[in-house]
UniProtKB/TrEMBL annotation:
Gene encoding the protein: rnfD
Enzyme Commission identifier(s): 7.-.-.-
Residue intervals passing through the bilayer: 21-38, 44-61, 82-108, 177-202, 209-225, 231-249, 256-277, 283-301
Protein's UniProt keywords contain Cell membrane: yes
Name of this chain's protein: Ion-translocating oxidoreductase complex subunit D
Species assigned in the record: Anaeromassilibacillus senegalensis
Annotated keywords: Cell membrane, Electron transport, Flavoprotein, FMN, Membrane, Phosphoprotein, Translocase, Transmembrane, Transmembrane helix, Transport
Family in the record: Belongs to the NqrB/RnfD family.
Amino acid sequence: MNKLIVSSSPHFHAKDTTQTLMLDVIIALTPAMIASVILFGFRAAVIILTTVAACILSEYVSRRVMKRPQTVGDLSCVVTGVLLAMNLPVSISPIIAAFGGVIAIVVVKQMFGGIGQNFVNPALTARIILMNSFPAKMTAWTAPMNHSFADATTTATPLGMLAEGSADAMPSYLDMLLGNTGGCLGETCALALLIGGIYLVARRVISPVIPVTYLATAAVLSLLLGRDPLFDLLSGGLMIGAIFMATDYTTSPINFGARIVYAIGCGVLTILIRQFGSLPEGVSYSIVLMNILVPLIERAVKPRAFGKAKAGKAGAAK
């Protein structure tokens, strides 16, 4: 006799699995990966392959050691590896990149139970740890379109130039849209990220609520503080953070209202850190901080149960 499995509602069947969702994310990240190789050369591909291999191996070994069912096949570790690489400079040592992959999978993900159990984004948390452990190496930016790594030209990111007051050397909007600036592998080409975001929304992998609210909040606050909203949107990790990081299923809210509050918090923190913080960039810290607050946000912003009257109407009915 077959077992009767009883679970809470809603009860519906969907063809999507973790593997198909993760595959869609990988496809959406492909334009950014291609752009990074075009802009920074073969070493970008080396960094991407290194972090992906480190994440796959870390997940396989940790699941074996913890005597848990293997989850390598769901491709979530591959997504983590790609996202981590997209948040690293091309000049980073492959050893440090691999170390970041181990942190993301073993420490942030598997030690908390695996996929669906981690309360912060693994790739962003690994990046923050690497930033604090190897600050000089994590902020050594290489100029794009200079594929001879031995003679690579160092440069500053647009946000770094703004913090230093180098107004004359600021890149144009077109340069930032196409990625002709210094920065991490996946954050420079905003156009590639927008293409990936449109794909995810079209495939209904993500809802546009979080990225649109995040970007709109950042733009409005940037304008109120006398900054350049378009510059803030196109520079740094804001675009990749809003589209690929803040929308992570595990670490973002489920309810519509909670998503709005969460995204507004991400946008406000990002611009406040950029404006008043000692670091020119604040996307990673903003998203991780809001990840931590997600349970409180969902508790405070609860949807009304279907058919349940509001407190005032219930009292009047009596």
